[in-house]
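User: Fold this; tokens only.

Assistant: Input:
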Amino acid sequence: MNKENFRILVLDDERSFLLFLTRILTDEGYTVKGITDPQDALNELDSFSPNLIITDLKMPKMDGMTLMRLIMSKNRDVDFIVITAFATIETAVTAMKSGALDYITKPLSNPDQLRIAVAKVFERQILVNENVLLKSGVLRDIPPMDILFAGMDNILREIEDVASTDATVILYGETGTGKSVVAKVIHHLSGRNGPFVDINCAAIPENLLESELFGHEKGAFTGALSQKKGKFEFANSGTLFLDEVCEMSPALQGKLLRVLQDKTFERLGSLNTIRSDARVIAASNKNLRELVGNKTFREDLFYRLNVFPIIIPSLRDRKKHLPDIAKYLASIMAARLGKVSKTIAESGFKKLINYSWPGNIRELENVIERSIIVSRSEEVVIPDLEALHAESHGDLQLDGDLRTVEKNAIENALAKTNGNRRKAAELLGISLRSLQYKIKEYGLTSSPA
């Protein structure tokens, strides 16, 4: 979020003071609207959609406290600063208890009093939005560039060329090739000051996807108990990553086309237009041109998305660099699992290189992580990957060869500790609870911990 996208509604019945406040804030770069009548302020809520309301406490038609409580009762996602000419402790405490973040007195002792109060709210909302994204797992560490783009020098050059522009990018590649990580790199190199927000169009039911993208108003549909911002609003001034955009319904394709064309949309249940300058990066594991030929994807949307296509190669096309990628994954997986530093046995590299990796990087991560879990030494033993794949029918689960390795490791640990579960868990490097679960799963017997 930048200052231009931070909307402030200023309400004061004293017109000269209102103009003074709006001028200060406009000069600071915020988008500001000044109003003298509380009812007009209520009418402007949907169309202006303010991030912050600065309101006088004493007004003839409706006092600021009443206005604040009325807006908050509608679950509006907006902060408040109150203005009062009666600078008493009681007034300030009442305002803060009612939900205001700060208060200022009039006349202003110094314009900086207003600037500082508003800057605090602006910074708070940025932190709140980032915290929401962190909790949802949107922001993750990006691997070192030499590892991430090993064998993809041409792709890195393309990304460096397009990142600083506003061009729409589409990433093509098989499932698991790391398209979402590449999208984060583009966002990182773009210098955009808004957040990176992603959404998987294939993972959300069609009837909910529209609300997730564009938001909704309270009462827009059954279950809409409060107003909700959509991904396009959260991604304002940042990047919105639309994963598996090929799975989007024709109706939603039309609405997406409009946002790409004029940067505007409406929340469900509202006629008020909202603007978002989010940069769109899309991804697809299917050829969109073929889908256009099959009449399952809009041709006009295809041309809007296909401005700058980038094809991410499969892991089997990067086999020369697979050992380096695997070593890096082993190091971070061991740290994540609380294990000592792990190295891959030399015999394992041949297995990794000779395997076709239908699940790409994602499958490699799973194999290495699970191999580390069952490893009893500093060397990680890679199982027979073809047998593992055949047993799991393409779904990498603890099955077949890897399952046998895990069972044998547990049996050996129990034998070495004379059946003492606690000592066996320590030897295996896993929690006692995990070991007890595995003992039950494999039908093993041992003495109590």
